[in-house]
Amino acid sequence: MTTESFDPAYQDLDTWPLDRIVDAVLASGRRAAQAASAAGPELARAAAGIEDRLARGGRLVYVGAGTSGRIAVQDAAELPPTFGFERTWVLMAGGGPAGERALENAEDDARAALRDATSRGLGPDDAVVGVAASGRTPYTLAVIEFARQRGAFTVGIANNPDTPLLRAAEVGVLLDTGPEVLAGSTRLAAGTAQKIALNALSTAVLVRAGGAYGNLMVGMRPINTKLRRRAIEVVTEAVGVTAEDAAEALTRAEGGIREAIVMLTADVDLDTARARLARHGQRVRDALNDEDPR
């Protein structure tokens, strides 16, 4: 496995000055971005499959262990506040505690993987994304195989070529990051490439699912002072009104950014705005083109 191999370019790493070590790690980060970019076509195929399953009302399920699992947890955790998307879940080897501290032995427990997958009732409407630098983590592989057997759309993301995870999933995404600066430490380039790939997948799918109007976060939840201020800015930018008018519309819309934009732009009440958005899958642009008087 290339992620576990020793690169002689770094054999004297412990003797290097700090600035040289920092530069080496930063260079590996650039290599990670290049690897993710090279996987663009596969990520687009994966996004299309996920979009299809979410349109059916299915869930976006992440699977991982160790560093890969914690990266998946991070991406999943950002989807409700950024897009208002709740239909997401993470199956993490070792469960919740593994999200905060390393429980590396949990990744070998394929039985636990099957228990977890069964308890979540994975099925044909779901999209399941497995992430493993090695491409052979037993926990992640077992969930992906189970999910595909149940008809779910499956994506495997790995940093080593021709590995079981890439073969088991309907779409395999290779992030070929090569050897790490610190041999075998896949929290570095491999993890960075995984973060970029998951960002690309979830953002692409949820933007198209109504999470954005233009490039504005209209699915965002204004639940604290900073986000309430940002919500006003989003409505102001989207509609071209004053901050005062935007704030007043958000109050009438009970904090709903999409609803406030539709209310102001189409000059309709909250119930009508909600009905339009419901007819168009929460996509603001389509709701604004809706002339249905209902």
Give structural notes.
This protein is an alpha/beta fold and 294 residues long. It has two domains: 2-211, Glucose-6-phosphate isomerase like protein, domain 1 (Rossmann fold), CATH 3.40.50.10490; 214-288, Helicase, Ruva Protein, domain 3. It contains twelve helices and seven strands. The protein has a five-stranded parallel β-sheet with strand order 2-1-3-4-5, sandwiched between helices. A two-stranded antiparallel ribbon has the order 6-7. β1, α3 and β2 form a beta-alpha-beta unit. The longest helix has 23 residues, at 189-211. The relative contact order is 0.13. The model has no long low-confidence stretch (mean pLDDT 93).
Secondary structure layout:
Blueprint: H1 18-38, H2 40-55, E1 60-64, H3 66-83, E2 88-92, H4 110-119, E3 127-132, H5 138-149, E4 153-158, H6 164-168, E5 171-174, H7 189-211, E6 212-213, E7 216-217, H8 225-239, H9 243-252, H10 257-266, H11 270-279, H12 284-288
Parallel strand pairs: 1-2, 1-3, 3-4, 4-5
Antiparallel strand pairs: 6-7
